[in-house]
Amino acid sequence: MASNEKWSDFISQGETAENSYTNERNSDEEKDGAGALKQEESRGTGTTKTDPFGDESNAEVKYKTMEWWQAGMLMIAETISLGILSLPSVLATVGMVAGVIMILGLGILATYTGFVIGQFKLAYPHVHNMADAGEVMLGPWGREVFGFAQMFFLVFVMGSHLLTFSIMLNTVSSHGTCTIVFGIIGLIVSLIFTLPRTLHKVSHLAIASFISIFTAVLVTMIGVSVAPTTGDHTIVATRQTNFSKAFLAATNIVFAYAGHVTFFSFISEMKEQKSYAKALYLLQGIDVSVYLVVAIVTYRYAGADVASPALGSASGVLPKVAYGIAIPTIVIAGVINGHVAAKYIYVRLFRGTDRMSRRSWSSIGLWAVIVLVLWTMAWVISEAIPVFNDLLGLISALFAS
Fold first, then answer.
1. Under 8 Å CB-to-CB from 16, ≥6 apart: which residues?
2. pTM for this one?
3. N or C: where does the chain have the smaller number of CB atoms within 10 Å of the terminal CB?
4. Which residues lie across from 270 on neighbouring strands?
């Protein structure tokens, strides 16, 4: 009997020791889990690295509202804009065959790199921009370097749209007033359209942007084919040129495909981010096809003296008509880049706070100030570099190639 009691006490002590060990182990695991979660917090903002906009169930401003086709139209409007206007002059610089090979080759490369961006975003859901991607790859220094490059690229692109806006008004008005005034008008118009804080609202303008640029280049192609301009109409397969001109031609093609800097932001505001591939293939199928047709046809009929932007290649009143039709693209595509640039700063400042999703005067006011500063910087750039091809080449060489 005494032996049984001792054996029961022994078993009871063992169970107590085991329970104590289990509790200590669970406690350690909870601490480790909390530590890991704390390490996953986004740079002191208190939000985990899962979503740049957090839980939007009770948010006043909801960001993740875009369908895949809306994201695709945004990508088309942002990509097929000013870059297409320089492609006929690329063929005039390097020749028909060489230019077509470059457009096709870089189009394939752009499709692959766009697909990689989508896979990267799915693997790291917290990534909202190139700065976040740089941090994943290279740590804090990568974040700052990539963020700096993204902001400068976007502001330079915004500047190129203001420059084109000035060229457009000069053409339509037959140089009716000072170019600086036209640039300021473009700044004010672009600023107003950039004020909405969600890409879903901007996406409604994207369809109008694509129709605008497609119609404008169609008018130009018809114009140069029906009534060719005077000048050198020689068509060559390849053309002997110097390194600087050939490099500028290559960077102009790079610029035509260089919408990737905005893709992380577009994916972040989609309802179903796994559908991004559909948007990418929609973009690439359209832009490669349109780029080839516009470049080949315009160069075929305008020849070696084709203008850049290409809308000026037609004769008579047609350039005015083409530029007038292109106004929505000139404004909207710039607005999309301006929105992404402003959103980068806004998210970086207020990520993880309720200010992101509030519809208060302070939230709206801060967004408006960011937009104003960025468009002012873009206007300064457009006035400092008033040559279209040179500006596009500089942007591509610095940040896109």
1. none
2. 0.80
3. N
4. 66
